[in-house]
Amino acid sequence: MTVKAYLFITMKIDPANRPAAAKVYTDYRKVFLDTIEGAQTKDLLIRKEDVAVLHGFDSVEHAEAYLSSDLFKNDVFVSLKPLWNADPEVKIYSAA
């Protein structure tokens, strides 16, 4: 398994709401890895100023496709949106 692309989503979430955000991560991690084409890894990163999720994929195309998937649009996004203080920052990187 070689990760060839990363989807990095950074979210401004108040510390009081971070346990709820971590629950969303935990609730959907396995289904993400089991059902999203090209998904290889998913990690939750927490800093004092924000929370991020780093998704590893086998291609940039699969990373882009995940953002349009039913899982992302109807489950993950809907669950996280009430916790955000601002729109999330979404970046896709190709790995060398």
Describe this structure in words.
With 96 residues, this protein is an alpha+beta fold. It has one domain: Alpha-Beta Plaits (2-Layer Sandwich), CATH 3.30.70. It has three helices and four strands, in the order E-H-E-E-H-H-E. The protein has a four-stranded antiparallel β-sheet. A hairpin with a 4-residue loop joins strand 2 and strand 3. The two termini are 14 Å apart. The relative contact order is 0.31. The mean pLDDT is 96.
Share of helical residues: 25-40%
Task: Please mark out the parts with pLDDT under 50 across 5 or more consecutive residues, or reply none.
Answer: none
Distance, first to last CA: 14 Å
Give the integer mean of the pLDDT values. Answer: 96
Task: Please indicate the percent range of residues in DSSP E strands (runs of 2 or more).
Answer: 25-35%
Number of domains: 1
User: What order do the strands of the largest sheet run in, or round the barrel if closed?
Assistant: 2-3-1-4
Order of helices and strands: EHEEHHE
Largest sheet, strands/sense/barrel: 4 strands, antiparallel
SS elements, strand count:
4
Number of helical stretches of at least 4 residues? 3
- Looking at the structure, the CATH topology is Alpha-Beta Plaits
Provide the CATH top-level class.
Alpha Beta
Helices and strands, with pairings:
Layout: E1 5-11, H1 18-35, E2 39-46, E3 51-57, H2 60-66, H3 70-80, E4 89-94
Antiparallel strand pairs: 1-3, 1-4, 2-3
Helix pairs in contact: 1-3
